[in-house]
């Protein structure tokens, strides 16, 4: 559809279907999570936070991070903007899902652990460090002007960050062993059928939501890239014209500061 | 295909700005090319492209038959670039600087003593770069390029900051290098000085080589009525 | 090996001449130690108990400055370009730069160790595990730092971004080094050698990544 019009859009038949599935899925999950399922014997209503918290964490750690790592590796290997934009999209969604994980984790921790933040929780701590690294990655992307440089260098940062997630996870597991550690998150195998179903459905919906948002975010990046390319072609044409018109002396640009100023 | 340098339709984007907009340039081996043009025309960018330092977005560029993108490290090993900055460590002496650059690439042969003598650096050889005057510093930078014995010399305003004696030394070095088979490209505003040396003059404007004329100078290859850079937009 | 040493020796020689790290970074490290003492109300028991953490926090902050200096040496002479033109394999440049940073950080750590003994009344009861842990941690910091230090220069990037990029990456090093020092200083009953081993693994991983990726980041420095 979008090809037939001149209006740039990030929507397509696929994203419309995905978006519909996500909205429908989320509505079902909310009904199941807040109405149908019983409160937990110990955690009572706080357990409902899990239906958002855990799927968000799973998407953050097992979808966005691998997507970021693979896209970054491919950006270095293939040297195409396609992979670079994919990596950027994955990192942004990583921030969103990590943030959601952290916020819901903190809110859940208050009634259950009686503290907003529990240092002993491996996953929460790993997620926090990942969140900070992703923020650094995005801050870095914003600060680099040249697209090629940005692609190469941010890919290196992304690969270090994704490797580091494993190291952080490992060291935190060892580290918290010495503290009095409260058993974290999932109540081992004691989920009854309806809760398990809600949890699984929510995870699935979040995964679909990830892909849906990825496609849109990627297309925004791609459109930006196309605008840049159009701008570059125009700039080249303009500068070429100036070469023959002898207008060149009138044109100066900060990028050419290194040009013979002597 | 005896061209030392062959640039075709080269586009170089620096932070999105087209510094080169489709430049063409062919340079023969053993020639001296004067690169002239107004500030911001793309002279420095063209030299940096040939040194494998500026990213080639479109088109192609070959130095001594090596592709500037695919064989970048080889190309860098062949060229010597003299830019506006000193490229010397301020807290090291001239000797230590030259020795350092010799040590980080043992594969290349260096001839430090001859160069020091040639550039009249004896007196400043064991002084820290920080303590040198502008002219002495410039000579030391030139020495750092010359000791590498590059096959392609890319000189960006080499006469800047030098006194008359220093300028003469540079001119002699350029002539000798070309006579020894090296290709020299000199970007300069000192047209009269370099024109005497040059075998060809390339004019660059708006990121394009708009004219490339052969001179009947001392290294002159026959004057060509048709210059390779004429392909307009 | 020759090229690696040439780069490291060059950096150390420049430091011996300019004394930037010795006269500016090292005093900063000691000031941080003293400020911790003031902030924690000079409580001896607290200072002793938290010596490992305070020590390594100080090292991490100091390493930022040391790395920025290591990069500035190249930037002020635009020597990153010369290094690229020299045709030296990037991983060798990386190894040389990281080696020089490691040497400087170890010198700072030795002074800091004396500092915590004097100021915090700490004592190194198991110096072996502390030394091995510190060495591994230092190599890890210098490796990650040398890679990220170059990322923080050129192309409009401000070096103020370095702490934000580097410190989260060094989180596992901080954890490991603090635990190894807990064992070395006897401040907590932990298996210090296991932590030193983990630090060794981290050092190898960062060293490998740095060596592999340095060529990419050097291209745009």
Could you give the count of β-strands of chain C?
0
Tell me the helix content of chain B.
Answer: 25-40%
Largest sheet of chain B: 6 strands, mixed
Main interface pair? A-B, 30 and 36 residues
Sketch the topology of chain B as an H/E string, one letter per element. Answer: EEEHEEHEHHHEHEHEE
What's the gyration radius of chain B in Å? 17 Å
Assembly context of the chains = heterotrimer
Mean pLDDT of chain C: 93
Helix content range of the residues of chain C, please? over 70%
Question: Would you mind describing this structure in some detail?
Answer:
The complex is a heterotrimer of chains A (262), B (233) and C (221). Chain A is mostly helical and 262 residues long. Chain A is 73% helix and 0% strand. Chain A has helices at 13-36, 50-78, 81-112, 122-143, 147-176, 193-245. In chain A, α2 (50-78) packs parallel to α6 (193-245) and α3 (81-112) runs antiparallel to α6 (193-245). With 233 residues, chain B is of the alpha/beta class. Chain B is globular. Chain C is mainly alpha-helical and 221 residues long. Chain C has one domain. Chain C is 82% helix and 0% strand. Chain C is globular and about 55 Å long. The two termini of chain C are 24 Å apart. Chains in contact: A-B, A-C, B-C. Chains A and B meet through α6 of A and β1, β2 and α1 of B.
